[in-house]
Queue: 4 jobs
Job 1
Amino acid sequence: MILGGAEETRRPDRAGARLRPAPRAARPRPARLLSRSSRLSMWAGLLTGLAVYALFGLVPAIGNLLVSVTDYTALPGVPTSFTGLANYKALATTQSPGFMSGLIATVVFVTGVTIVQNALALALAHRLRDDSRTAALLRVLVFLPIVLGVTIVGLIWILIFDPQQGPAASLFGALGVHSAFFGASGWAMPLVIGVQIWQNAGFSTLVFIGGLKAIPPDIYEAASIDGIGAWRRLRQITVPLLAPSVTVNVVLALVGSFTTYNLIYVLTDGLYGTQTLGMLAFNAAFGSAEADLGYGAAVSVVLFVMTLIVALPLMAWLRHRERRLTG
Amino acid sequence: MTGNPGMRRTRRLARLATAALVVIIFLLPVLYAVMIAFEKPAHFLTSPLTPPFPPAAGNFGQAWSGADLGRQLVNTIIYSVTSAALSTILGLLIAFPLARRLVRRAPALYTAFGIGLFLPLAIIPLFVEARSLGLYNNLIGYILLHVEPGLPLAVVLLTAFVTSIPAELDEAAWMDGAGYLGYLMRVVVPLTRPALLISFLYALLGTWNDIIGPVVLLANPDLFPVTRGIYNFYGANQSQWTLLAAAIVIASLPVVALFAVSQRQLIRAAVAGSVKG
């Protein structure tokens, strides 16, 4: 996600407008300076890149729609036929269990992750933003889970919450609480949310630190000199000027938690009430012998539409909030 | 920021508390796994919370051979380095003409790549596509399928970087008859090195840590990267934690080493708000 990039790429536009009388003159000419073979290599590079992007990025994104109206299984010898909206009807009826519970799991997961991750990241950013060596070291630590990746992170937390030998079992045991943790309904979902946050909080923290650092320190100094207290400084300077980072972090956490399931796959494979819709789509397609790719694709399409329905208005509202706060 | 000595002491305590909390939350779980890797199974069964004295290294040899970690790490390195390099090179080959508007509709194309940052990884159609194109369950296919995820970030980052290079530079070079690719190599690559490095590192991490991809797109155990290998090893040796922890440590060492040398760039990029996680 780029913040400055869109702005910067528009700059040649303006520069061009200044140099040339007609800014929308059919096309810029510098390509003419290139020899024929150079132009060929430019096109070859650009088209190869576009082809890769279209073939493995755009086609699959649209492909869900196509697969969702079939009963494709990918099993040898099983014919595939067009089934129209049958997969979508199956979602709406009780015929296919998992959708309603998946919807609830998704709402819980998304809400928990988005709110807690951003709150934690904001607190961490506030404490880890200074230029000291300690802060730099701590920033490395909060970023470590991103580097380790979901498989290693998942296994480390399964170890810690091992019902027999794990330190968490001893800790809770001392309080008289015994549980199978990742293997227990009621425990699994909060734990999965916690690990998801642990995995990604470092990134949100760094984005918030970027936002905090972008606030010119002399604003605070001026406010201090004017005798404005800490609380009002927070409300009238930090909160408004941090609004763009809030937008980025909230949207990233929201869209991310709507669609991600790789960590859930490692931790519980969607068992014990952790089967979000993304996990459900995966498990329908690849999780059992009766591979139902069509149903999985239909779930993916519904999930994608749901994500847009929630994310787009939220983004609009956050942008509006940015403008309102910064005046 | 001054204040009386009492306030200063409170502040120092608060700073210490933060540091302790971050270490406990983010480092202790990892260190715990490292500690278990050095414990003998019997020690782990009787007193899992105490550090091993003396530490035993036997788990590592057993995990190395038992989980076939050597082959899997080589696979992972081949997959992630190749796909990240391809994705960075293609990113530059796309970004340069777009940033310089050497082609029609450059802004629209740029937007298309920006959208790519938000496209969900559609694993089901990707699987169908991989099967029909002969990319399923083979090395070349697996690498090709992992080039695209790194592209949008590379294009967006590199476009911003190329834009900051004065266009007069290319015009002068081209009027002198410099070739396009030679110019990119000799002038643009050195000037965009930080963005190239960041694109490469994030693409590399994405492929390195992918677990869904290897589960869906590979079937032959000889082709498994270390993520799937270690996940299967966990499935086959559940609750043999001393062995599993050793495998975890071995599997993470290369990527942690890479992080140790590149953390400054990775973190600075994230602080600049320029990358998606």
Job 2
Amino acid sequence: MVYNSNYILDMKNIKFLFLGIFFAIVLSKTEAISWYRFYEMFKFQSFHMFGIIGGAVVISMIFMQLFKKGIIKDINGNKIIPKPKKKGFISTILGGTLFGLGWGISGACAAPIFVILGFKLIPALIILFGALLGAFLYGLVSNKLPN
Amino acid sequence: MDFILQPWAWYVGGPLISISLLLYFYFGKNFGASTNFETLCTMAGAGNFSDYFKKDWKQRDFALLFVVGLIIGGFISSNFLIPEQIIDLNPTTVQELTDLGFANAGNQYFPDEIFGSEIYTSLKGFLILIISGVLIGFGTRYAGGCTSGHAITGLSSLQFPSLLAVIGFFIGGIIATWFIIPIIF
């Protein structure tokens, strides 16, 4: 049987589908998609979310060092270099604060919005529609905003 | 099997999130979630309105597959892996939320007051969700990342902008939960 190259490309990326399923299950089972858990976190009434995010950061730091030293390379044997984040004091603080407001009210951050579709379809669709609208508005005004 | 159906502790979640990050980078891509909002805008034709969206979304097919995986994973979790959606909240939190008028705090993953049928019957319920969404979409794009991209990837790779972004996340989240939620409920 002959496959064309596009088909092979698709199959190569199918691993991201499985990784998405795994990540969603991790977020769901650790309650890291629950509105209540984020409310508790922002009110500093529980260690749970700080433990999850803090733990993830600390262990990821070790991985980042292994990437940097070239001990862990990617699947193609290339050095792993995380993309540098765009700089800009106002944009990161102000953008971060706006995101934090939405996150604090709805209890949803970016990846969990998609996971919540599997729990509360219509409310999550409304949040997702809002997020797309927000990203669209940003695209329209991005070159007029301070960095 | 029992372990699968029990809630997972924070010390299980942290390492498993790092492993997700590790695999994402191992597969040759940069870990993050919020760029997908942009990609979905591009797919919906936003390029007709702004050059910002004139990008080739096919370059991001891997991320779209990840998103589809997130949805499938959410569906599997909600239907098969969490028999009782009960959260072991701090009693102080439960009391506070009860005083604000939230019934059943902690006896579900998502409060009916925000995710319940009010979204169909009251404009307020609908606006709460849509405005939050706009803030999430606009904010993550302006800041250049979300919890995955900034808090986890950015902080662990010691990027200064990510520290600023995370400070911003908490400023916003604290304003939302300490001041805005008590006003709107």
Job 3
Amino acid sequence: MTDAGETAIEPSADDLDGRFVARRAPGMATVDADPEALLLHEPTGYFHLLNPSAALVWDCVDGVTSASAIAAEIGAVTGAPFERVLRDTLALLSELRDAGAVQDATSSVVAPLPPPPRERLAFLDERFATAPEHAALGVTMDGASVTVRATDPAPVEALRDALGARAGDPVPGAAEVSILCGRVGEVGRDLDRVYAETVEVTRTGSVARAAHIALRLVDDLLTDVLAADDSIVTLQADALLDVHGTAVLVDDRSSVRRVGTRTLARIGLRRLELASATIDPATGELVVLTPGRALGAAPFDALAAAFPLDDDVAPSGRYRVRTLVLLGATPDELKTTSPARRVGSLVALVTGGDGTARSADLAAVARLAQQWHVVRELGLTPDDVRDVLQTVAVEGTV
Amino acid sequence: MSDELGQDTPEPRAGIGRRTLIKRAAAAGAVAWTAPVILDSLASPAAAASCAKCFKFGIQAVNTGNANPTKTDNYPVLSYNVGTCLPNGDANCVAANEKQNVNFSALGITLTNPFQVNLPSSNQVTVSMAQSGTFSGAGCRTPFQIIGTSFIWRSTGSDPRFPSGTGDNGVCERAKPGDSPTTGNLFPNNHLVAVSSSSVTWTMPASLKPGHSGGFNFVIGCDCG
């Protein structure tokens, strides 16, 4: 720290001057994308991409050192004029402050922002409000509760029989598994849809299969492995399994996710029915957990006896991941060479239905994405889907 | 790409640790001082683009009785008893930028498949926006970015998917890039297949109303950075 750094106070375009001491706002986490950086606000999933100089300044934000001192230090190693570095640094800190990423270290400590309220799907609730036959049950274990609800009573009754004494009344505020049963119209019957909280897990024409998937989701949610286990990375992605036993991860928003079972089968892929893709960050493998970790095997056996399992329910095990299909929301994402932008394109994979995102998951998937073949998809036209599927199929033969 | 992270990142220690960090970066040639900037601040990757201008338009089947329209129609499309069904971003794109009765080819619009809402869900309609090229009708440059879109369609009072009632029933389904078929604003049924900044695909809802009876609204960003 130099004298110049302590005393030279440059006016800025904002109200900040060289005496400003910044600290990182609560909830902000950093994922390095050398030489750039991505700042992630974990409670909301909001993120900022920093260029190399900004990443350097961010590294220096420690809640103690003034902007002048930071500028002096950076100026000393880069050779850039102190006045210029200070002016640039203040401008950046002003931007970061406006964005909520840094705070004035001399102000009173602000509590971390609470996570936003859990997103509710209006159309889910509306469907239940207009389904007079809807039914629900609750399962509570070790203080954790899950509600299963269905617009028709059949799957809930099947689960009640299978769960026996474990089935009880729904607990308000519990995690929810929702089954929207297909409705009959003049043009046929809609498929049943199964949701884990806000995520649509599957569409099926079989009530039995919907019940099986729902039971598996209840078990996952009660185990809470998706939220609490740091040894597993949870991605908001669909998983396909190829004939070689390797997995293709598909962005939750990708058009490939909507491709029909028969089309997938033609290229040697089948969909695994998972609430979320869980990845071992050490090996990069897709981990399909054994059902019954929370509930035990009895409900699964009982349900299977009443409704024999098809072979399309995901077998437990570990699968090597070879391809990640990402939805590139903008043309820039497809052609960018910016490390931070590439990491940023993965944020949607780790952002949960409640809007929270874990930087540990983001860092892990950013590292793993370097090992996987990544197919980036732009928009959705029939040609796009065909191209993506052909790419996936070709990769499977390599 | 380094993947080291700081979950609840501790702030670096002042002094030696930070100076060492900077000097290492300098030694590696990583520090050539340029203005430090935030490249982007995003709620989701879908929000990555920023656009200087905009335009908006409707595509309507029923007005012309044409399942394969080639021109834009009124914006917003007919209400069908559910209001104007304005898409995301409408408020920031003034009425002067509405493009009505303009050939799709002059706006960089591609519409695939017949657009009839009484078709079953196996029929999907995709509207794509040009990402390159010159389109004189737009009044701004590519790439075009979909800011928001909405699908408005109607059926009859006997449609079992609707709450009880009489007369025509209308549905407004909105979507924007980043949404998925599980996103809200899709009542009573969800016909969104996928939406990105460059295209949106809807399945047809098998309306019981004879004819086409539906329309799309779009707010499009252009001169996007």
Job 4
Amino acid sequence: MNAAGSASAGRSPATGSSRTLPKLAVAGAPLLEVDDLRVHFSIESGTVRAVDGVSFRLENGEALGIAGESGCGKTTTALSLVGLLPANGRIDSGAIRLYGIDLVPKSENALRRYRWREISIVFQGAMNALNPVQRVVDQITEPIIERLGVPARTARKRAGDLLELVGIPRKRGGSYPHELSGGMRQRAMIAMALACDPAIVIGDEPTTALDVMVQAQILELLEDLRHKLGLSLILITHDLSVIAETCDRVLVMYAGRVAEEGSVDEVFRSPRHPYTQKLLSAFPNIRTDKRTLAVIPGAPPDLRHPPPGCRFAPRCDFAMAVCTEVVPPETAFAGVRVACHLYPAGSDGIPVTKPTADAIGATAPLVEAPLDEPPLDIANG
Amino acid sequence: MTTQPLTEPGTGRGPSPAAGETIVSLEGLEVHFPIRTGFLDTLLRRQHGVIRAVDGIDLTLRRGEVLALVGESGSGKTTTGRVVVKLTRQTGGTVSLDGRDVSTLWGVGRLRAYRRRIQLIFQDPYETLNPKHTIREFVAEPLVVNGIGSAAEREERVLAALESAGLRPAADFAARYPHELSGGQRQRVVIAGALVMNPEIIVADEPVSMLDVSIRTELLRLMLDLRAERGLTYLFITHDLSLAWVIADRIAVMYLGKIMEIGPAEQVIRSPHNPYTQALVSVSPTPEPPTPGQRAKRTILVGETPDAAHVPPGCRFHPRCPYAFDRCRVEEPPLFDVGGGQSAACWLAEGGRSLPVLPPRPEAATIAGSDAPSATTAGGSPA
């Protein structure tokens, strides 16, 4: 995998070294493989099964988007990957294999070898994640010295290189976080995540608090870094448009489970799972003439007492008797993976009961017609 | 946790209020905040310049319409909203309600009648609601403060407001505390708190940006249904141009304290006449993977919005504008009428002209490969 030429050739602009795999790496193993991950949180009123049987893979150089609404388990999944779960959370079962090395049973000490150096994470609020009383360049230098064991001077130079790489002039590195704009701070966070030259960078809502224009700049930067450094990206977001913009594959989560997974082109153009369909049509799309938004009635389930069967069933327009009783297995076809009883094993992607146009189009028009124009054609379908 | 029945599922829009007369009008509105850097400055009323949060805008709100005020952070959209509800004092210009100048109307007592007619909804339902107060207490508060009605009448109005906001059974919700409600329900409570005064105008500052998309639509539908039922008028403040396009009749785009473009929603999105609007439309996120052609057409502006203490001379957008020419650097363009009720503050729009065609971004075209056939029409109307 290391010898996969193109990916490692452009790596490490600052150190110029090519990637050496951890000693325990299994030859031929995929970059990252998450297998039936289950994460539980203990709270006063019971156990929250935040992630309940999630599996996925990340190949070298790939960008995977994990989408879902609050409480779907996407951030918990991300935190599990870097071993940063809060104190009341634990991985109940499952495996997280990096180059074939299972990280789940590793001690905190052993994990340190991998966190930041192999997998790093960019958090949402750059304001809260940066130390307000330390210069930005020092905040990047410190972990380089500590984790890579290089002399201070080399580390400082690398920190400067990283800042330039993410579009912050080297001399601005001497600023304190409050002296930088929101977009600049998020760039600094990205530089920090790149400090130890990781193979995988996870972005947890990396652009959520930013203005659209700054968001466009940051997404362009991530795209650019991915090509330059051969990074693999995991982008966690509630905003499907961010994933449409930057990712190769998308994993849609609902209430702790995978609803649908596949290439961005396939999933966005022909969503199979009823939740994916609804979620996609709940976003306005300025490039179409459909000024309609879908309503998803109800609320996500309480994960202390999730409903049996499919967790989306209570809100689903196509729910059948089986949906409320049996957990839908994941079915794979045409490069996608769907957990829905409409697509039983061996399905070719045609739902067993044809969803009526009426039901899909439950995107009742939100707006009938603009004021000064003839009514728009807002036919559903 | 339950499905809230919507007041009227189906069309959100009532009778078209196209001919709505002007209800609120802002003329030459300015809000300049003095910069004082320390205690001594404050004491001596010494200032080091001004932040020109709102820098001379004319805006009318017509009865029954949804006017979206769209802009990035620092554009002055929130300050404008606060002036309309009279929470922030303007430093110049006038505010009129029903043609009557209310610019000098200040003081809690004198504003009482005004505030009954105009209510504000904030962004964050988690911060708006006091965790120690029941929903009943929150919704009844404006009635109590204004000394309206007897206890029984208040209760009746509170329940009616909760019901209108889709919280049923209202009596059950009234007895609850905020922590017992979901995010969507909390925002409904905030709406009920505004409705209880029977206002005519609601200024909604990012009312749905904290909510999950699946909940967002229901709230927007509720707001539009309420307009149909009660003839409400909305000033809808948002950073999200796509959302504005879906729910508003008219869109006003703000940048650094000025209105750059205003007009019917569809028209502003389809044929923007101001380069800033055009750039915003081109980068507005959509839930579909962009084609190489669309990528190439995108105008990602360099840099960030300057701070409002250092407004560039001439057209304030010129340092970031891909079309800027000499005149833009020295002379600020007024809003030019470009037809169909749309106007744009850009020298290129003078006489109602359209924006010229920009060449596609070279780097984007390279990434996308050579197949960028439609890339020559820079972000314009899709015919």
